[in-house]
Structures are given as structure tokens and as C-alpha cells.
Amino acid sequence: MGILKRQYHSTMRRAYGHALAEARRALAEGGRVLDCGAGHGQTFDQLGDIAPQRYTGVEWSPDLAEAGAARGLDIFPHDLNTPLPFEDGAFRCIVSLSVLEHLLKGCAYLRECRRVLGNGGTLVVLTPNIATYFSVLQLLLGRMTSSGPHPDSQVLAQTHFNVLSKAAAGQLDMEDDTPSHRHLVVFSYAVLKRFLRLAGFSDVRGAGFGYYPFPVAVQPLLERADPWHCHQMVFTARR
Questions:
Q1: How far apart, in Å, are the Cα atoms of 219 and each of 100, 127, 132?
Q2: What is the C-alpha to C-alpha distance for residues 4 and 112, in angstroms, rounded to an integer?
Q3: Fewer CB atoms near the end CB (10 Å): N or C, the chain?
């Protein structure tokens, strides 16, 4: 495995670990959690000791939603570009991991998240950052970036993308009817933080992960000093 792939996998492990820790902290005092982009319930398995009755998941893929429901989890198909089918204030925490970049209407989605959170509830968002120095370098070299919108061509994706996007995608599905590996609208750290505040969230806090191509050993220091240009970003915001 090349150095950039190792850095990518390290980045994703740390980013997901941080996001899940924030979700567990928000749920420590009870309440329900909504898992947006639930898959077959893999996030539920990592949320700690919560009863299935406290968990609801929505998933784009009917097959994955069916697999989650077969496990006894409350997971059902839903398009997150449309309003969330829940009452106001229904949840204590919303987990949105690697979802926002796949939506056509990301801002509307974030406003819906605020609506269905109860007072004091927490939104946890993990999403790539388009404003990375690595992305700037890729653009200067005339290439498409892994953090930006993906093409709808399988051939182009396989030949013109950098190693990070290939590591993320694995088996590419760019030309499927419901491709899960295409990025549509990707925020920068500064813009996402500002929009969460504009949408009415408070106590908006962000953390950055992945500062390519610097060595893994020094990345945590650079991430703390400059989260605005990290590859992945995790935001928590209070209702």
C-alpha cells in the first residue's frame, strides 16, 4: 500500500472515531439517535450500549435498508434530498457520516436536521473538505480532486483520479443509477461552519483530519493548527 493510501486510511479511522465519540457523548443522557446514511446499521454497532428502540436509520439504498431491518433495526429507505419524515424535535442526536457530499440539496438537509433535533440536541457531521492544499495541487496539475465533485464516467474516474479517491471508492460505481461514490456538492471548512451558524445552530465546533502529503507523525499537530485545509472535517453543532 502506498504512503498516500496509508495516510488516507489513517485519516478516515481517526475522523470516524472522533465523530462516533461525539455522538456517544451526546447520547450519554438518553434520547433517540437518527443515523442518516445508515447502510445496514454499521454505525449502530459502534454507538455503544444503546437499545435498538433509541435508534432510527434512513438509507438511500433499499437493499442496505432491508439488510438493516432484517437485523431488527429501524432502518428504512429515504432520499435525504427531500424533507425528513419525522416530527419536530424528535431526536437527541443526528449522525451524518460521509453523507453531505452526496446530496444535491445539502443546505436544505442541514436545516431539516435542525428541525428534527430537540432543544439541546447535537448534529454530528463528517464530510470531506474541498479547500485542501492537496486539492489545490491536484488542480494545478490539471487533475480532478478526490474532495471535489466526481465525474459520472467510470473510465474517467479510474484513469484521472488520484490515489485517495480510488482508496475511498474501492469498486467504483460512477455509472450506476444510484452511485454511492460520487460527490456532488462539497463544502469547505469555513463555509460549512458559517452555514451551520446561519441555519440557527449554536456551539458549532469543527475538527480537521488528514493533512496531506505530510508524514502521519506530524499530521495531528498540523490538523490542530490549521483544520481549515484538512482532507476530512467533523463538525458538531447544537440545536
A1: 24, 18, 13
A2: 36
A3: N
> Which of 40, 191, 28, 194 minimizes the C-alpha distance to 101?
191
pLDDT tens column, 3-30: 777 888 889 999 999 999 999 999 998 9
* Count of positions (residues) in the chain: 239
Give the CA distances from residue 192 to residues 26, 95, 113, 131, in Å, rounded to whole numbers and listed in that order.
21, 16, 14, 11
CATH number for the domain including 7?
Answer: 3.40.50.150
Residues near 230 by beta carbon (within 8 Å), at least 6 away in sequence: 129, 132, 189, 208, 209, 210, 211, 223
Distance CA 16, CA 116 (A): 23
Work out the average pLDDT over 167-189: 75
- Residue 162 domain flag: no
173 lies in a domain? no
- The residue written with cell numbers 460521509 in the block is 98
Strands 91-97 and 33-36: parallel
Angle 189-198/106-116 helices, nearest 10 degrees? 50
SS3 assignment, position 102: helix
- Containing domain of residue 15, as a range? 3-130+184-238
> Does a structural domain hold residue 138?
no
